[in-house]
Amino acid sequence: MRSQIQKTSGQRDLSVGGEQIEGKQAVLELLRVGKRRVHKLTISQDGPMSSAMREIYNHAAASDIVIAEVTKNEFLRKAKTEAPQGVIATAEPIAGVTLNGLAKESLDKKSAPFLVLLDSISDPYNVGSIIRTALAAGIDGVILCEHSAAGITPAAAKAAAGAIEHLSFAKVSRAPSAIGLLKEKGFWVVGLDSHSKTYLDSVEVLSMPLVLVLGSEGKGISPLAKERCDILAAIEMYGPAESLGVSAAAAVALFGVVRARTSKP
Questions:
Q1: Distance from CA of residue 116 to its chain's centroid?
Q2: DSSP 99-135
Q3: Same fold for the domain at 11-91 and the one at 99-262?
Q4: Each residue's pLDDT tens digit, 153-173
Q5: How confident is the model at residue 242 (pLDDT cuts 50, 70, 90)?
Q6: Euclidean distance between the first and final Cα of the chain, in Å?
Q7: Is 158 helix (H, G, I), strand (E, B) or coil?
Q8: What pLDDT score does 9 carry?
Q9: I want to staple 89 with a disulfide (CB 3.0 to 4.6 A). Which of 21, 59, 68, 205 is the partner?
C-alpha cells in the first residue's frame, strides 16, 4: 500500500496531519512504531525525568534524532495543547490512503472489515478520543472528512495517545460521496443517530463489511450523509439522559458492534 500513499506531482495530498505530537505517551508511541521520520524533539529543561522520558531519550539517541532542550517559557510558546507534558515531537505528516485504497486494503485483509467515518466532528479531543477507541476495538481504518471537520491536530494526536501511529486513514472531501463509494464496494453503512427508532444492537448487518458514521455532537450526521446511510441506529438508553457525547457514543457503539460480531456462531 505504500505506493498508494506517496504524494507525487499532480496528485491530491492525502496526508492527514500529525506533524506536531505532544505528550509523553503520544511521542513515545511515535518513536516506538517508527513509521514516520521524526525531525526533532523539543524538551522542557525543567521537566521531570520519568521512565517515559528516559525511554524517549533512548529512542532519540538510537535514531540520531535532534533534541533541543529549552526553557519552560520557550517550550510553552511552541506547544499547541494545554498539557504537553514537557515533550514535543515534529515529524513528517501521517500519509493517508485513497478511499478506494482503504476499502481494498480492508477487504483484502478479512471478509468483514469495519471502518469508521467521522462526519463534521470539529472538536479535536473528540477526534483523538474516537481514534484511540477505534484502535482498541480493532477497527481497520478511519475516514476523515475535510469539510467542517478537525484533522489530526496536535490536540487530536495527544488525545489519541499514540493510536494514530497504528491505524490507516483516508481523507475525503465530504461524507456523502464517500458513503456512495463504500456502498459500491460492498460495505453496509450505518449512521449513529440518537433520534432513530432502531437500536444498534438490533441491526442485522453488523457482521457484514461495515462503515459506522459518526456525526458532530449537537448537529449529528450531515443531512445528505444521513440520507445515504443504509441504516440509522441509536444507542439504547436506560437512564434519563437523552444522548451521549460523540466520543462516549462512539465507544459504546464500536464495542457494541464488536460484541455482536464475536457473539455470532
A1: 9
A2: HHHHHHHHHHH-SS-EEEEEES---HHHHHHHHHHHH
A3: no
A4: 999 999 999 999 999 999 999
A5: confident
A6: 33
A7: helix
A8: 41
A9: 21
Strand residues in the chain grouped as ranges (E): 20-22, 38-44, 66-70, 87-91, 114-119, 141-145, 168-172, 188-192, 210-215, 231-233
Cα dihedral: 158, 160, 166, 167 (round 10): -130
Question: Residue 40's closest CA among 81, 89, 111?
Answer: 89
pTM of the model: 0.91
Q: Superfamily for 99-262? A: SPOUT methyltransferase, trefoil knot domain (3.40.1280.10)
Instruction: Please give the grid coordinates belonging to residue 39.
Output: 525531525
Tell which residue, 25, 20, 16, has the closest CA to residue 40: 20
The answer as to CATH 3.40.50.2000 being correct for domain 11-91 is: no
**Strand order from edge to edge, sheet including 231-233:** 168-172, 141-145, 114-119, 210-215, 188-192, 231-233
Domain boundaries, the chain: 11-91, 99-262
Q: What is the CA radius of gyration of the chain?
A: 19
Dihedral angle of Cα 178, 188, 252, 85, to the nearest 10 degrees: -30
> Side chain identity at 37, as an amino acid letter?
R
What are the grid coordinates assigned to 30, written together? 511515535
Instruction: Tell which phi-psi region holds residue 218, choosing left (phi > 0), alpha (psi between -120 and 50) or beta.
Output: left
- For 7-60, what is each residue's pLDDT tens digit? 444 567 889 999 999 999 999 999 999 999 999 999 999 878 899 999 999 999
